[in-house]
Amino acid sequence: EIKSILARVGWPKKFVETSVPVIPYSGYHGENLTKVTDKMPWWKGCEVTTRGGKTVTCVTIVDTLEKYVEIPKRPTDKPVRVPLNGCFNIKGTGDILTGRCEQGVFKPGIEVVFIPTHTDSNPCNGKVFSIEMHHKKVEQAGPGDNVGMNIKGLDKNNMPRVGDIMILKSDTSIKACKRFTAQVQVLQHPGELKVGYTPIGCVRTAKAALRLSKINWKSGKETGNQKLENPPFLKANESAEVVFEPQQPFVVETYKNCDPLSRLLVLEGNGAVMLGK
């Protein structure tokens, strides 16, 4: 019955039949949570295929989590990307920057720059002196780690800011963009969004005013869920491909190169207007 409902609401039928585990359980009585219940002698488990192509038999909820759910591979082999969420000067210690490593691995002693504050004419760079995580020094930081970094050699006249991305000094694969193309979903807005509309865009900890410079296509109820090329405006509940022009230095990445730095939130006031990537 559950699989039939999933298929009716749009889930791929083959995927539902082969790869969706359905476990009968009772959280209130603790049946089939961690141990096989004795109250359902007919239940022998369900056989499903994981995303990695392995066939497993799931009997309980914990069993399903351990066998079916696979930990995704951390992007340790990609270029370092660390969005900053805090910049502090601590007496007796120096400049401390905090952030979450999205991808790559870095260690104390490496030279780094902070974009988009860093430019060729006005550098913003330094060297990682030490790394701490949960008040303990660590030898390196990798994807998913929330860290504090003691950075030496920063220019007091051009310090890193919240929203900057820390990258290796030798990395030339990313810089501030003049414009970027995004696929977005318009959430709630009472009016029409036309070229020239300038909301606030957020990517991780960075934010900047973004001017809507072009609407490549849109689809929604008015278009019969078909793509309408070069439409004059966007409305609520429509999806579209648009071009934004940041009005301040702003860094984004492609979804393929760095998933977290490609996700876009568009705000007007305190409300979300669009989500996209």
What would you say this structure looks like, in words?
- The structure is a single chain.
- With 277 residues, the protein is mainly β.
- It folds into three domains: 2-67, no CATH class; 82-168, Translation factors (Elongation Factor Tu (Ef-tu), domain 3); 180-276, Elongation Factor Tu (Ef-tu), domain 3.
- The chain contains three helices and 16 strands.
- The strands form three sheets. Strands 3-4-8-6-5-9 form a six-stranded antiparallel β-barrel.
- The longest helix is centred in the N-terminal third of the chain and has 7 residues, at 2-8.
- It starts with a helix and ends with a strand.
- The mean pLDDT is 92.
Number of helices: 3
Shape: flat
Report the count of strand segments: 16
The CATH topology assignment of the largest domain is Elongation Factor Tu (Ef-tu), domain 3
Q: What distance lies between the first and last C-alpha atoms, to the nearest angstrom?
A: 35 Å
**CATH homology group of the largest domain:** Translation factors
Please list the strands of the largest sheet in the order they lie side by side: 3-4-8-6-5-9
Rg on CA atoms, Å: 24 Å
Please tell me the overall pLDDT: 92
| Helix content class | under 10%
Main pleated-sheet profile: 6 strands, antiparallel, barrel
Order of helices and strands: HHEEHEEEEEEEEEEEEEE
Which parts are unreliable, with pLDDT below 50 for 5 consecutive residues or more?
Answer: none
Supply the helix-strand structural class.
mainly beta
Q: Specify the CATH class of the largest domain.
A: Mainly Beta
Strand-residue proportion: 35-45%
**CATH architecture level-2 label of the largest domain:** Beta Barrel
What count of structural domains?
3
